[in-house]
TrEMBL record:
Cellular component terms (Gene Ontology): membrane
Gene Ontology annotations of biological process type: signal transduction
Domain EAL: residue ranges: 24-273
Protein name, entry field: Diguanylate cyclase/phosphodiesterase
Domain of life: Bacteria
Residues of the full protein shown: 397 to 678 of 678
Species: Rhodospirillum rubrum (strain ATCC 11170 / ATH 1.1.1 / DSM 467 / LMG 4362 / NCIMB 8255 / S1)
Amino acid sequence: AVKASGPGQWAFFDRSMTENALVRLRTEASLRSAIEKGQFVLHYQPKLDLRSNRISGCEALIRWDLNGDLVPPGRFISIAEETGMIYDIGLWVLREACQAQRRWRRHAGAVPIAINVSVRQLKDERFIDDFLDIIQASGADPELLEVEVTESALMSSIEVSAHLLREMRSHGVRLSIDDFGTGYSSLAYLKNLPIDILKIDRSFVSDLPEESSIPRMIIGLAGQMGLRTVAEGIETEGQLAWLRDNGCDMIQGFLIEKPLPEADFLRFVDAYRTARAFPSAS
Ligand code: C2E
Ligand code: MG
Ligand code: MG
Ligand code: MG
C-alpha cells in the first residue's frame, strides 16, 4: 500500500505534517507571548447549593483573549501542558482568582472560587511555594479558594499529589476531584487524600434520569466518606430533579448559567439573591 500510494502521496503526507507542525509552532509562539502580556480572562460559572437554594461558589474557567476572540481551553491547555507553559498560565489563573476574590469581598461578599490545576503544575517542584506565596501576597482568604484536580491527573502522580494536597489543605484550601468516575482508578486512594468534594462528571449527568446507577453510587460513596458532591453539566430540569431528590449537594451547568465574564457573573449573583430563583426562569 505504501508503494502503490507513490511518491506524490508521501510528498502530500509530508507537506501536511509540516503544516501541522507550523500551525503548532505558531500557536506555541503566540501562547508564549500571551503569557508575557497576560492575554487571558477568567469566566465564572456559578454553583448552586440544592439545600439552601443559594449560589455557593463558582468555577473559574480560562479563556485566551486573542485580540478580542476568546479561545476556549480545549484549544490550548493541552499544548500548554505539553510545553510546560501551563505552569506560568496556572500562576496567572491563581493570581487573577485571588484578586477577583478580594474585589468581590466588597461587592458580593464571600463567594468561593474554584480553579483547575493540571498535573504538570502539581509535579513542578516550585508549585507549593509559588502557590502559597501568591495567596499570601494577594491577601486572599484560602478558605474561599478551591482547587479542582481531575481524577486521572491525581492518579498519575499519587505520591506527589498526596503530599501537596495535604499541604494546601493545611492552609485551608478546599480540594475537589474533577471529572470523578472517569479515572478508572481504585477507590483506595480516596481515604488517604484530604479531599472535600467529588465532582460527578458531565458524561454521567447527561444520562440522568434514565441511567442513574453511577451518580447514585458516587453520592452514596461521598455520603459514607463525609465528602460533598457537585454535579457538573446540568442542562435539564429532569437532571436537576433527580439530583435534588437523591441527595446531591450542589449543581453546576447551563441550566443555572454558563460561565460568565466577571461583571455579568456578579450581576447574576445579585439577581439570584434578590429573586431567589433562576433569573432566567422569571
Ligand atoms: P472542567 O474543569 O471539567 O470544566 C467544565 C467544562 O464544562 C467547562 O468547559 C464548562 O464551560 C463546561 N460546562 C459547564 N456546564 C456545562 C453544561 O451544562 N453543558 C456543557 N455541555 N458543558 C458545560 P471549558 O470552560 O471549555 O473548560 C474545559 C476544560 O478546560 C475544563 O474542564 C478544565 O479541565 C480545563 N480548564 C479550564 N480552565 C482551566 C485552567 O485555568 N487551568 C487548567 N489547567 N485547566 C483549565
Ligand atoms: Mg473543573
Ligand atoms: Mg469537570
Ligand atoms: Mg469535565
